[in-house]
Amino acid sequence: MEIIMSVAIGLMFMAAVYLILSKSLIRIIIGTSLLSHAAHLLFLTMGGLGGIAPPVVSDGVTVNDYADPLPQALILTAIVIAFAVTSFFLVLAYRAYQELGTDNMEQLRGTEDYE
Amino acid sequence: MSLVFLIFLPILAALFIPLLFKRLGQIHTGWFVLLVPTALFLYYATRLPSVMEGGTYVSELSWIPSLDIAFIAYLDGLSLLFSLLITGIGALVVLYSVFYLDKHREQLHNFYVYLLIFMSAMLGVVQSDHLITLYLFWELTSISSFLLIAYWYTRDRSRFGALKSMMITVFGGLMMLGGFVLLSIIGGTYSIRELIAQAPELAEHDFFIWALVLVLLGAFTKSAQFPFYIWLPDAMEAPTPVSAYLHSATMVKAGIYLVARLTPVFALSEVWMWLVAGVGLFTMVWASFFALKQKDLKGILAFSTVSQLGLIMSLLGVAAAAYHVEGAAETYLKYAAFAAIFHLINHATFKGSLFMIAGIVDHETGTRDIRKLGGLMSLMPISFTVALIGSLSMAGMPPFNGFLSKEMFLTAMLSLQEFNLFSMDVWWILFPVIAWIGSVFTFIYSLYFVFHTFAGKHKPDQLPKQAHEAPVGMLISPVFLAVLVVLIFFIPNVIGDWLVKPAVAAIQPFLYDSPQSVDITVSAWHGFNTELFMTLGIFAIGGLMFWTLRKWQHLYDLYPDPISLNRLYDELMVLSESGVSRFSKMYMTGFIRTYLVYMFSFVIFIVLLTLFMTDAFRLNFDNLAPIGVYEIVILFAMLGATVTILVSKSRLTAIIALGAVGYSIALLFVIFRAPDLALTQLVIETISVALFLLAFYHLPQISRKEERMNFRFGNAVVAFGVGLTMTLVALSAHSQKALPSISEFYKETVYTEAAGGNIVNVILVDYRGFDTLFEIAVLAIAAIGIISMIRLRLTKKEDQHENK
Fold first, then answer.
1. Which of A68, B137, B384, B456 could be disulfide-bonded to B125 (CB atoms 3.0-4.6 Å)?
2. What is the pTM of this model?
3. What pLDDT does B454 receive?
4. Could you tell me the residue range of the domain that residue B801 belongs to?
């Protein structure tokens, strides 16, 4: 399963990077979102996908049956942070539309005066 | 201790100069300054008798003991000679400057502070026994010289000259630092005396030749040798006392000092001998040839200084040859070191006086252009006499000291005949011939300087001022130096015994045990020998060429300007400025996409290269989780949604597809037994999609035309590379687990230690609670940031806040 996941994650990275290299600001943000999804999945996969029970203590489940709880905790933190950053970016992009009137990255560059 | 203190005395005195200038402005500040070099000169003069006997003085002031760095003042024949020159000429120059610089119009405090700093730095250079502090003082001379050249900083040419000299000398200084560091690595010590003691072992080391070349670069740039001499003519924009002091008597001789001081270390290498003698001789001829092209009095003197420095340098090179000859103390080769030091003293006397005369002429007529000058002989008789003495001495005529040193120079060049290493028997003849040609040109420009200024027709209509003799005070220093010029001719052996021989013993310690054993007597008349006939030839040919100078001087205009070294320097400067900025403009396009491509490409390159080089890729099929049907289905859904994002024409589709990816991941979390993750992912994905829709809704009209993303091959390659890299890294990371997971501990102790059942939650708030704290902070900062972005709007009118 991990090998299939690795390939799928690679594909997601590929799509994310392709989007990040595009001209439109909103596609870039979609790309970063996709990138964080891929990173979270990579976390989970690298922790190992074994374990037959969720990491919650309950009767009749031995220690070896739990899924690895540590990557899950790390991913939880990462999700929240990625969310915070993405929402910040989005509002930034929204404000940029409002002020500059464009979302084309080719036009969003410093003028000669600001070099 | 006291010797080290004396080095810093001028700097300490400099602290009070601004105060004296502000409070006692009625008295010319120079008078106070004059006390410092005079006192120092007298002090150093008292050291002469014992140094003459071969005694040395050492005093040490620890600076950074843990790094073995200390100020060590070491006074032997060579450093005492230079100290006397620095303080002696320094006193005369200060005296001259009192009358040269107007106390009302000039910023005297600046001038004397810089000058005193320079004096300290120069004393430090010649007395330091420690390589690092020698370098420190060396750079201090560059800096103070920079300040002095640009003393009239409102003039463009001054600033240009200062910058040029700074660039070139600091370049050389840094090279020299490299050489010093290499030397200290080879020898294991920073002390020059200790390095000299182990000179034969040093020469065996691989770094030796590098250290040699780097140190020579430092010496050549400072002493204005070919091709680094170009800064010196431009440094003539400095006030004349500065030119007289720095650019004839002291700073430009720092390189000479360095070569002389390190001769015992490096002379064992033939490269040293060839470089020093060859470059010196070439500089001499080159500069004496181009001195005649100059129209500016100080320009002529600058080129003549370069030429004379080349002469001294070449003599030091020949002195190094004495290390390769058995019993050199018995051969004529012994004259080289003596001649070098003797000429150094002579040059300081006559060139100092000539500069001062050039300054006087400038001061009293308002111009230094030799084409406008002429016929000043009767108007300025004293200046003329001094200039005549200085020039004839420079030309090498009796009865002036220049004659003696020129004779010894020719002797030393002819003595290479005896030096039959490296098949010199064929090539030695080049040295005297080139030296002779250089001397002929020296003869011509010396006469050119004095006679085209003072003789000929007076042209009062071309002069900005009515020419008249200078005030007495201004004449004291040049007259004093001119008297020395004549005096040295008649008592050369006194100077030889007191000053030159101790210095020679310091340059060639392996030949002489003590200054007394230097067995050289200078005589004005040395019989009919080759040198004398060469000198007569110089006078004859030089006189003839000077007589016809007007006929052929315009030939210099044929020299093509574009291939001059100055042009090369200018081009290099322009290239380094505009070339570099063009280069950065080439890759700094301003498009964020370009930078991202750089970054991703380098990540791919580095990671794949590492994987390949360290043979790190592994694929291991053990320990895999079983493949489930649901997982495969969800993965397909997820990848399908991803592809939809890529190919979608409308952005709305892309956003919804992104939501689909997020929900499939939540489903994957469910299947992979991560309930908390699934919960969070669902909620957050929902909010994110809502935010995306918000951003989408507010898109401006102009770019609202929906279009599919254009396929770009370059982007696709980079993206494919990143994907491939991540897959390979993930596969090899998973296949090579080095250690078991720490999670066993959490699983076992979650209830007993932390009294919780949900292991993930307990990790978040108990085991690793700090992470959570700062994740909360991140959320808070993002929220505050968003609020401020929306609320705070500084409009283009600066005084108007929207939320006022």
1. B137
2. 0.83
3. 87
4. 745-804
